[in-house]
## 1
Amino acid sequence: MNSKITWLRNAMTSLNLQGMIISNPVNIKYLTGIDAEGMLLITRKENVYITDGRYIEYAHSILTLFDEIIVYNYTDMSQEDYENFFMFCENVGFEESYVTYAKYKEYMHKFKVNSLVETDNLIEKQRIIKDEEEIKNLKTACEITDNCFSYIIKFIKPGMTEKEIAREIDNFYNENAEGVSFETIVASGENSSKPHAVPTDRKIEEQDIITIDMGCKYNGYCSDMTRTIFVGSVPEDIKKIYDIVLKSQQQALDEMKDGAIIRQIAKNVDTNFRFYNYDLIHALGHGVGMEIHERPYISMNNDTLLKENMVVTDEPGIYIPGKYGVRIEDTVLITKFGCISLTESAKNYIII
Amino acid sequence: MNSKITWLRNAMTSLNLQGMIISNPVNIKYLTGIDAEGMLLITRKENVYITDGRYIEYAHSILTLFDEIIVYNYTDMSQEDYENFFMFCENVGFEESYVTYAKYKEYMHKFKVNSLVETDNLIEKQRIIKDEEEIKNLKTACEITDNCFSYIIKFIKPGMTEKEIAREIDNFYNENAEGVSFETIVASGENSSKPHAVPTDRKIEEQDIITIDMGCKYNGYCSDMTRTIFVGSVPEDIKKIYDIVLKSQQQALDEMKDGAIIRQIAKNVDTNFRFYNYDLIHALGHGVGMEIHERPYISMNNDTLLKENMVVTDEPGIYIPGKYGVRIEDTVLITKFGCISLTESAKNYIII
């Protein structure tokens, strides 16, 4: 059996689950490699993937004998088949944070399971710790993003619109990766004061500040990086803010390692900001993996610890409403002795 | 109060609901115009939209006094505030097909509601019938798609890859609309045999067949259209299939009107196909609105009737595995006396 399903079966045993229904397609891809629409059942005796005609051939092409997963077409399944899967199971787990209330009731009915129990994001929590292959993919996604950034800072010229720049980034990712991992942000001038700006038709001007937040997918894994760059020169008032953000970002990097308390890292950045009368108005970062935003969330509300082989972002930002904003973000790998930045683009003043 | 919330309040009364929690952002946008992250509460006395700091200003900019919706920042809300919303409510509705099981439990706790009841897709079902403004938006989205198609058939040349063509379509939509309403399909040669093909690096060749399935968003409303076109000439074997698909598509259009039984329309296409030894392997169509796939689903499993001012697609397809496929799709408006195609692109043999 593949190592991830072996892990899941062990985890289920310790939770007294004799069966589990996995519906979240990201979790199914994590466990099986299959990226399609379907349902994975872990039963007492076997592992079963149920899908429709469109994906049967594909599922077989992904799985090996070693996976020990039987593929069924749902049109071939009877009500009796469904009821047999979890016969004599005391507790069957389901993904309560993915499955809708309506689906939950449908499962109860379809599988005739009396005790469908919550699994407290069991698989999502396991996904926090990346294995060697996952780290390789994340590293490559970050490299492609560094390359894209090198390309784009040469491409940007005054007179271009934010949308044109965002489109060029998207095209780069379409050609060199599996496309973007989230909607590219290119926010110039006063637009940079909005943390979640959407690219507009605003044209880049001399003396502008531009925040670019971008990432791609490689082998199903995401990258995430932000740089705030300058056109022509660095205005004195913005320089001050840039320095505070960069210093805080660097400080968090210095603190990120196995065993560090997440809350404390975010708190320290907030304290820094407050010293200069600014606030940390969004989370300091988040996990990155098959999804662009994953656990652990790096914020002052998170009392857990960083652990070896987590991959997280460090992205403090200061935003002056209606004027400008600065955000600097790297994606980093947590190790026993510190963190290794997977993002390698420069963070000094970048003037184009 | 705005007309859509007035409708909802009346519907709630007839379902004996004294309150309702609306979480699906598409439904919230439909009822309020607000396109953000938040929660809409319909309580005995008031309508409340709860969001976070990022969207407060925006929400106020969308709403008018006429809407009678109070906007709150969730950071200003206490546990007591939440408990007060539905005090003395016998039944409070929630969206069981959108809300996860975990959220359902959270709502029970947060609002201290004993009877949180399912609402059987109340709002989604209302969204099936479009009003005048919605129809105008859908019509414009379809017009932009017709224009994009006229543009793209002049753009395509042998030697280009499917990805390049798809990217050009996406760029057209980014410039002339609010981007795509779903991932553009450009499937050439044998790739056209897959109904859900993803654009590849395959280069267009002389004598190719190309299926293009595309749509954009305009004012939040979607368009959806498919054409299968030919490079150089129409091979005799494919011509035969094209004619069967087009004839069936036209027949369904002729049958689509207020009062028509959806199941029967799909069944008739299937019967046509079977006469020639082919199958209708996917649904014949679907509703189109704020979402690209909405109710009603036009399939042999749907026993409901078409109604005036529904907007649906008609998209039969025949696929010969490993060889080629043909699909032709229009988006149409249902009226009392027939349907009006919002898609106007030609459906005769298109040879580039």
Note: The radius of gyration of chain B is 23 Å.
## 2
Amino acid sequence: MLIRNTVKLIKSLQQKKYRREHALFVVEGGKSVQEVLASDWPLHSVYATAAYLPELAAGLRRRGLDAITVKAAELADMGSYEHNDSALAVLEIPLPAPIRFGDGEYVLVLDDIRDPGNLGTIIRTADWFGIRQIICSPETADLYNPKVLAASMGSFLRVQVHYTALPAFLQAHADRPSYGAFLDGTDVHRTAFEPRGGLLVIGNEAHGIQPELAGLVTHRITIPAYGQAESLNAGIATAILLDNWRQSAQRS
Amino acid sequence: MLIRNTVKLIKSLQQKKYRREHALFVVEGGKSVQEVLASDWPLHSVYATAAYLPELAAGLRRRGLDAITVKAAELADMGSYEHNDSALAVLEIPLPAPIRFGDGEYVLVLDDIRDPGNLGTIIRTADWFGIRQIICSPETADLYNPKVLAASMGSFLRVQVHYTALPAFLQAHADRPSYGAFLDGTDVHRTAFEPRGGLLVIGNEAHGIQPELAGLVTHRITIPAYGQAESLNAGIATAILLDNWRQSAQRS
């Protein structure tokens, strides 16, 4: 049986305010908790049903940790899932890490991606294409939002997500090429992305890249349209940009 | 003031069962209702706030229709949106149309896309890339689900969505090339899609393309991975496939 205050604290982590206050966040579902245990992410505590516990044994041993056994109803009560008959972990929010460019590295820059599902899908897609760092505007959805984590399918463990003011970030890296998706740029299918590394900039779902940032983007590119849709979803545009960036590297 | 039974009927259309019973569905939000009025989709009725009515005047005139003036609270009550201070339309569900292949046409085939947001995003993306017809398995999310319509951003008005048993459909079109996304296929970046038209097959979010269908796919293709994510979101995979199909046509 859990102490009521523990349930209350963990439940409060669904809100950004309390995540910041305690520097903790929650990961839900057995598969995700297994991935957390296999990673080196700093852990606070792990909760699992008696039935699911054996699945976590190897991971817990590796971490030198014990899980707290709870009922499925308690897991659901602590987290955001309607049903959870497997596990839940409480993780530490790390201190902000410095952004360092590797040789030839491309980073993804997100200008106000507000939808948590979009952000999570973008992190998962970035991981697929080997992006290691994502730079988000302060208004972008919070990485530790349960919907972001769920949509990222564990990729948040491998892709570093930073939050910073984007105009200053682009100015500080003005020596690197930056490619931004606009409706009036050059065809992304014919774009040769510079091999020395740079920035891939994606705009807000409704308003695109904000004007202050748009002026700092060195290469305006466009995903060619063949039909009548007015725009693409921000996650979809990111995926097509990343795939074309990888194709360009294959050609050169 | 609306008759209570009208509100109750329209509200019931959020459930598939009642949409089928009445052959009606609901489109919410001013911009979407404007798009509906500009299209030729058969309309049942239009509801708008007095403040928003002028925005619909041209569209209503074109359709020879009057809107029923309601309060914002009534719009929210009738629909799925928490707030709606503009408009809502009730549309007719048309009878199933036959699937006819145009010259060189590619159709999208969706094998059990369960998430309404994914289906809506796929319809929007298909519209961007000029796909005219989508063939869905019976288990795929319902086109007239409010979340599908919202994510499609009006593209449901331009892309025909059919529901049918997919193994029989693929067998009936075995003379056409079919390209399916698998984890072990040939590199989509190097795939030359046949110009005579064919089928692009996308699998379920968790299980991919079902075995019965997989055996009927003539070309197994793969989106190359450069990182560690295990898979891509189904909407993301669709977008990359469609963009590569269009690129392949440019090359040939």
Note: Chain B touches chain A through 36 residues (CB under 8 Å).
